[in-house]
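User: Teach me something about this protein's shape.
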Amino acid sequence: MSPRAKHVEPVMRALARAIDGLELPAVEKISESRKEDPFHVLIATLLSARTQDATTLAASTRLFEVAQSPRTMAKLTVKRIERLIYPVSFYRHKARHVKATCRLLIERFGGRVPETMGELLTLPGVGRKTANLVLILAFKSERNICVDTHVHRISNRLGWVRTRTPDETERALYGATAARWWPSINLYLVTWGQNVCRPVYPRCGECVLTAWCPRVGVARTARTTAAAPGEKVAV
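Assistant: First, the predicted structure itself:
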């Protein structure tokens, strides 16, 4: 375990206070508005990859207005799905994945989203990030950590881990953090990464974590300015 991992507790407590009032990530919003429906969380997470939150939210809303379940969504043509989810990144690939996923949910799982990592990973376009987020948000798992680019970046900046990929970071975080924080790591670090600890020119002058952060890999920081309304970085 990294010596810096001992700072996980104060960092997470500080973030719990600091993100209060900040805008939630798009998939969190969708999960809340859709009452943690596993299918909606799954599809929204598939659409969210490498896409701005506002775009993810709008695309998911359009799609769910037309189709609410795997069976109704599977009846849509790929072209129709493309039009509904555009302009999410890689929308053509994602449209094919959405339709194929709906078909497999019907054929293999009786139209329900599976509740295990192994089964979720059999669905088209679903990797560990998507599977972990579905398990955490839709099934209230307390044994999973969802690692996206924000979590990967900030965990390394804080010195909790020294890893090269999100998958390596996920494995390392299980050993570097207490289990009680696992379900919250994604929400806290993604929200902070979108608003303050950005990939380029992080707002270190506005950060509540300066006492515990060695700024690993940070060459230049932003001038201290107020955040622009709604300004976020894609996951």
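Now, about its shape. Confidence is low (pLDDT under 50) at residues 225-229. The domain at 37-137 is CATH 1.10.340.30 (Endonuclease III; domain 1). If you'd like, I can walk through any region in more detail.
User: That's plenty for now, thanks!
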